Amino acid sequence: MIYCGIDWAERTHDVALIDDTGQLLAKRHITDDAAGYRILLDLLAEYGDTDENPIPVAIETSRGLLVAVLRTGKRRVFAINPMAAARYRDRHSVSRKKSDPGDALVLANILRTDMHAHRPLPNDSDLARAVAVLARAQQDALWNRQQVSNQLRSLLREYYPAALAAFEPWRNGLCRPEAREVLRAAPTPARAGRLTRTQLQAALKRAGRKRGIEAEAERLREVFRADWAHQPPLVEDALGKQMLALLVQLDAACTAADDLAKAVEEAFPLHPDAEVITSFPGLGVQLGARVLAEIGDDRQRFADARGLKAYAGASPITRASGKKSSITRRWVKNDRLNHAGYLWAFSAITTSPGAKAHYRRRRDDHGDWHAAAQRNLFNRMIGQLYHCLQKHTLFDENTAFPTQLAVAA
What we know:
- It is a single chain.
- The protein has 19 helices and seven strands.
- It is α/β, with parallel strands linked by helices and about 400 residues long.
- The mean pLDDT is about 90.
């Protein structure tokens, strides 16, 4: 059997082919373009790569055009963690020498000796991979929006507390279009105090508000004209210009998050698993798309529900040595799926009577803190999701929480 290792870089890649005995058969230095990919495929074909018996490939990344080219057909591609590859390097040399061709050889030897201990990239459908791209981008856009919003709020606390008080009753606060439009019209508290009712109403209309414009404009006017402390005029004007610069970034982040959310709403319902995922309490389109993005639709990816629970960081981990034993939460996990699970469990508590009863039982009977009880609920529900996806059945409240519902009744 032939094994291939590729040391990935930004512009060039090093390729190594070895046989069952570890003998180096060929090595190449290829470029990161169509010509380089063609050389790589020709090299694999020269050493027996066919559609029926493809050569497995080890590489230190799971994305990019090179990986997309390698994943055509039935070829198994193994994404090796760079830290794991560094540990394997010490098995071949104690002098700690390192080179790109040598790293490619190490990756090929990883498959030769320990291929059973590593997992190939899942064989997800193109639609599932497209949903994963959109869902992860939308999640990143939300995190970016929150980061810029926190920076803007911190700046407003230094010179413009009236704005924070004015926007506090609104949901999402500074991220609302009305708040951004008012800040654009009055970047400093001095200018905000001179705004008239007509100007405030016009700003709210430009932001897209349809109802309660007159009452809201009157409330904003009273807040802006109240007695507030002020920075010196020159400093206040400078801070106002800094705020406008941050406002441009916030506008872009909000637009990106909204556009990506619409794209997710269009793509996710087309997937066959969308109906099963959204049947669970607490999972809507956006959160369901994030769950699908991380678990994929390859039914062979996880051997059982325990593997999925460990991957999500929901199940605890036991560390035992001698007479000492401890059970703690998992720190090595899929952070995106774990974050989605936190939101999922939090929403399920308010929408599912069985989930709420399970959460209360963990808090009252077992003495768990809020986070531990919520993580235990997530652990149970993601196991149920695994079963429903395998059988392609919808969520049923009575089947999922029979004991909890009886206790609640």
